[in-house]
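Q: Structure for this?
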Amino acid sequence: MVAKVKMAVRGDAQIVLFVILCIFLLKSCNGAATDIELDAKAQLLHRLDSLNLLLYTFLLILTVLTIWTFKHRRLRFLHETGLAVIYGLIIGAIIRYGFTTSSTILHMPVVPDNSSKYNQSVPPDTLWLRFPEDKGGGNIIKNKTFAYLFRGEIYKQDNEIDLKATFDSEIFFNIILPPIIFHAGYSLKRKYFFRNLGAILMYALIGTSISAFVIGALMYAFVQLIPHLSASFTFLDTLYFGALISPTDPLTIISIFNDLHVDVNLYALVFGESVLNDAVAIVLSGSIQNYGERYQSGSGGFETVAFFQAFGDFVGIFSLSLFIGATMGCITALLTKFTRVRDFPLLESALFVLMSYSTFLIAEASDLTGVVAVLFCGICQAHYTYNNLSPDSRQRTKQLFELLNFLAENFIFSYIGVSMFTFPKHHFDPGFIFAGFLCALLGRAANVYPLSFILNLARKPKISLNYQHMLFFAGLRGAMSFALAIRNTVSDARQAMLTTTSLIVILTVIFQGGATTQFLSWFNIPVGVDEEIEGLSHNGMRSYNSMQDGSLPSSGIKPNEKALLARIWGDFDTRYMKPLLTHSRPTLLETLPVCCTPLARILTTTQQMTQDEAVRKADSDSDFCLEDRELERRRTSVQPVSFHQPNLNYTINPCYQPNSTDATNPDEPYVILNLHRR
Amino acid sequence: MVAKVKMAVRGDAQIVLFVILCIFLLKSCNGAATDIELDAKAQLLHRLDSLNLLLYTFLLILTVLTIWTFKHRRLRFLHETGLAVIYGLIIGAIIRYGFTTSSTILHMPVVPDNSSKYNQSVPPDTLWLRFPEDKGGGNIIKNKTFAYLFRGEIYKQDNEIDLKATFDSEIFFNIILPPIIFHAGYSLKRKYFFRNLGAILMYALIGTSISAFVIGALMYAFVQLIPHLSASFTFLDTLYFGALISPTDPLTIISIFNDLHVDVNLYALVFGESVLNDAVAIVLSGSIQNYGERYQSGSGGFETVAFFQAFGDFVGIFSLSLFIGATMGCITALLTKFTRVRDFPLLESALFVLMSYSTFLIAEASDLTGVVAVLFCGICQAHYTYNNLSPDSRQRTKQLFELLNFLAENFIFSYIGVSMFTFPKHHFDPGFIFAGFLCALLGRAANVYPLSFILNLARKPKISLNYQHMLFFAGLRGAMSFALAIRNTVSDARQAMLTTTSLIVILTVIFQGGATTQFLSWFNIPVGVDEEIEGLSHNGMRSYNSMQDGSLPSSGIKPNEKALLARIWGDFDTRYMKPLLTHSRPTLLETLPVCCTPLARILTTTQQMTQDEAVRKADSDSDFCLEDRELERRRTSVQPVSFHQPNLNYTINPCYQPNSTDATNPDEPYVILNLHRR
């Protein structure tokens, strides 16, 4: 390095000669003063931006290192998301009380121009500041107009770094949430998800709605009791609060479940519900807003119409978003099936990422819900597209989204911690906070217990009381609640909601998250159950069995006892969707009626016709449509081989999940081989 | 899907009963009108944001698909970056002339409050709009203050989507550039880079400075000839233009070179120069700005002092940034060497990414140059940290940055295209544009030819004239020039620079990029040279030889003819840096003097002491310090094995670059094995 710097010095010494000539030219420099000052100002703002990002990067590094220490020492009393929150709180407090930077931001109070006839009920989006003529003050800018963008309401003088340590809520919705939600869909263990489809939908769709209304009603009743609150909260406000506090967060619980190998069906219920109820909550809160707008514009007219419109919104937005997500997933599958883009894994991965992200954006741009769309897009990508990808892209996309998800979720929890202190729009109202905690608990109970009772009437493997307690307990609040709460913080009511939501998130994540292991043992939940192995596992058979007879407190599930919904869909999927969208067999030539043969021939690739039986079964997930005998047959079709060379020992474990980047023969099964040197 | 929607409908039907009760409560709703309207407004803005992002995502998808078609059909007349620019131009034109959306953004002209005593020479950063009292207009907001952030100067009424299809230049600097630059460092082929270190530093440091001053002086002379320009441009302005138009872009040329397997030394010269001159240009332009500020504040005092301060800035900022980058790289190496974070590849990858990004931010926050820091951080990460990573993380980080780089570079070129039409601050001045093109060419020539002449005086394998022509021709302008130009667009002069820079970038990328193949054959540059294989390749030997005798028009390089700088550094690196930062041998116990043995013992890991010879040589790059005999010995140490089972044929290619995600035995060499079914 020293050498390089020397080089630089020597090099530039030569320029000096040349440049000294220029100095004479520079003497004639003048004007452009504003430019230079603006440069300096831009530089200062850029520095603050960097400092701001650096703060969070530093927090994340700290979190990563501490998580590692915890994992290394097998400590489980605090989870990584809890850690991120706590570090965030500490740093937030330091920023709040430690720094008293002299503000370098220039403020100017302004009033509307006399000529303006502004009579909207909302503040304008942009201000145009016409700079005045020179009043003899020296170097005031003359005759220029500058644009200013709306930032928010002001209550008191804000510390500069405070303003800077916060992000636009747009960043959460457009940048941070999509990878988290997509990853949830992409990594969903679909076999168990579909097996418990009925219960998951019940909890997520009906349960979340019940919870939102119960919380909304209880909060409204409570607010009426307190004089200073009753003025600022309408029922719509409390209902909105109910909708935003209802979704549960999968992150913390699920990663503990993963570590402990908790019973797969409980895993599926908790994960499936919390993934879907994020989607439900966001649609629900949107519908409530729409209801508010209609109600407003109708000015007290016929509210029932507005209500049913809102209900229609809910159903329409949810199903349209789902449709967009699934469609985009299928389009990606078709693109990867019928082009040879897999020859260029980088392009393929880029296409995959871009198509998935555009799903989110298309839904958002059409006033639908990107979260729902990207969730179902993720499920479709995993179910269909994944099978068409080259081995390189499979691994790359999985690893990419895993990493993005990790960074995004830890960022959001750090941010929740920091913003508790730095976000200028908190409104602490002890009464509202207390009521919020109580109602959140009651709302969760109103979701889990009655619905479990109803489900148990029809469901064969009943959900035992201990499982119900665990479901109740798994109701941590997380990123989605926070993101919804921080979206609009203009009024007092909204600010009190944000504060309460932040506190609920922080406390549930730290305490409920930390106590999960303890609760699992109190409720006698089976842990250490053989994990479901993705793709084709060698102990797949064993895990499959243990799940069936050990975990749920009922007799084993026979194939015909699988959820009706799952069976119908599974059949349709195997016969039509998979042959159309992937290289799987049976092909459409075999499943479609004879009249459609020409069409089927177009939609069937050569690869699909000629490929080997063993290969085509190497699916992304050991799907719900696979039966035991298939698993067994597949496992026995290639035997593990052992052999040795004079100085080497090889063990070959056949494995159909290609992990290699060598894409020259992407269709051939790969074997990963550990080479033990003696 | 149909089934799920049905489920949703059935589920929600139950809520209806419950909710009808609530309707009565809702009748009492009132107020909170502003909240709801603000919600609606936030939603609209969010939709526009999404639309905006969608636009670019769509452009990238289009580019990916077209690139694939081109690669598939082996078309080379247009390169992917060229494609991205062209698509960008088309979409930009459509947005500009196709849409005439009625603006839904609310503007309000404002004037400073009477009480304000604002006498700065720059516009304020924030405006505080005190909303007036109710003047009887109905539902005007009462008694609220809103904050507005500075956006820029306004010339004419802007179309809404226009404003929206542009991004803050902060996004380029904080989000888009870092992965591109880091990837350049991380994927640098260090062997050839160090072998040509002298020439690369000469072109990048001295050449870029010469080019900037030549362009600056010529442009100033030209501007003086045109009356309407001479008023708005100072010499400092034209010098700044020289600095921002001097850096060349590696992307387009390099990916063509990659496709064609162009001679590795030419590759190293072009790539090394263009990577470093980005760094030089950004520091140079910063120094020019600083000079301007000092010159300004001194108000015509002693400019020579300001000049030498600026020169000191240049050297100081460059070397400090380099130091920060290298230090952070080394810290990451130490972290990964002395902790067992590699047991958790996800954490390890996250740590790697976060440390690398924080390097950029630390440099930016300390008023240094993040680009320089992140570049050298990338080089150190590849040189040291990479060797400590688990196989999973190696692959993950490589693939991640490859993908990020691909997306970022295509995004930036799309954006250059779109912004040509939509960015509101273009200033087309045909004279300035023409002069810009001419001076850019002359500046490049003033860099390449004189310096090549000087280099050839001392250099043993001379750089032939054809190579010089190719170097001249490889001077496409790209992302860095554009990013620097768009950073400040307040004055007319800056806007004219932006327009000229955009045009130069667009035209050089499309035409020079497209004609590269043609030029390579005109200049008789050897193509189809055996590619350097990363890590340890089986034909590494052959490529090494062919490079030595075939490509450069001189006799082969003997070991002692390697650059002196490279030899000194290589020796130091092998003896001290690598043993300290990685698990390589010889260990510090062997290289440090005896008095330091206790220290050396602490810094040497057990793994380092006990590991196998073959493993420790499995370095990330076949480094400049490796000699031929090493390569040969390594290649012969494990023999390929062939054997077969009744129905299977195996060929095992020993390979020390682990590709597997199986991290259970990360220290053991892996073998990837193609399994041919018979």
